Amino acid sequence: MDNKQFALGIDIGGTNIAFGLVDQQGNIEFEKSVPTDNFEKPLDFIKYLFQIKEIEKKLGSIKGIGIGAPNGNHFTGTIDFAPNLRWKGCIPLKEMFENIFNITTILTNDANAAAVGEKYFGCAKDLKNFVTITLGTGLGSGIYINDNIIYGEHGYAGEFGHIRVIPNGRLCKCGRKGCLETYASSTGVVRSFLELHSDNKITSALIRYDKITAKEIFIEAQNGDPFANEIINYTAEILGSALADFCAFSDPKAFILFGGIAQSGDFFKNKVQKELEKNSLTIFKNKIEIRISTLHDKNAAILGNAASVFLMQ
Q1: What is the pLDDT of residue 1?
Q2: Which domain holds residue 86?
Q3: Same domain for 130 and 106?
Q4: Residues 104, 133: one domain?
Q5: Worst-scoring range by mean pLDDT, 13-27, 71-85, 97-111, 296-310?
Q6: Distances (CA, A) of 95 to 40, 86, 99
Q7: How far apart are CA 105 and CA 172, in angstroms?
Q8: Judging by beta carbons within 10 Å of its beta carbon (0-12, 13-18, 19+), is residue 7 exposed, middle or buried?
């Protein structure tokens, strides 16, 4: 008889929802991703998930469900007014999952889940103090201090994407202006393409695309396109400067970049590192690493949510 136990890890993002069954060694036995906008209401997604045969067959072996979501509140089990989700308001997601699955459910911020994934299955195994920076539709952060994930008083610690970096800057979905994620995220990179004025824009290979994406901008930048490189340099400048300020708060050993625009590896990392060093306080210079997630070919958020289940029960 197979007594192997699993955790169902779920990562709810502004663009896609990824989920998978994970064992205690970090092996993902089943994994799938679906567009978030496929589900008008969260209950629609929960019912869809409950009917997937690969999950249904393992229900008796699932120890818990771990969910990472934008504005996911670890203490209340609710998603609270997430600006990048179509599901609005305060959503009691933990309670909704437990009512249908009858399995203990843990909800946290999606970036916190990614941090736990890096700590236990990725490139942060040797770190006690680090910050993950998730660069997707928005920007999130997961903070480890003295080997503990930081939630804060109300469960919202790590909303670094909503630190305002440009006074009266770009309008953010949160309703404020100048938030970091409007510049340093996949959507922020595209907004820079649309808004930056440059002589290089006229001859850029980017104008050939009908609908540009951050991935295409990075590809053209690595191919030497001058305007694409302006965009990436501008993104790295803003992100690196913001990370320099974050050092003064958490004093990390490393920042770990995860997500779509981090997958270009050293090309982007080195630019961000340069800006970090340029803008850091003297006491932090040449002390803070920037690492690239080693879990891009897996799924840091799925693994992190699964690890939360195994750790907290």
Answers
A1: 42
A2: 6-116+298-312
A3: no
A4: no
A5: 296-310
A6: 18, 19, 6
A7: 31
A8: buried
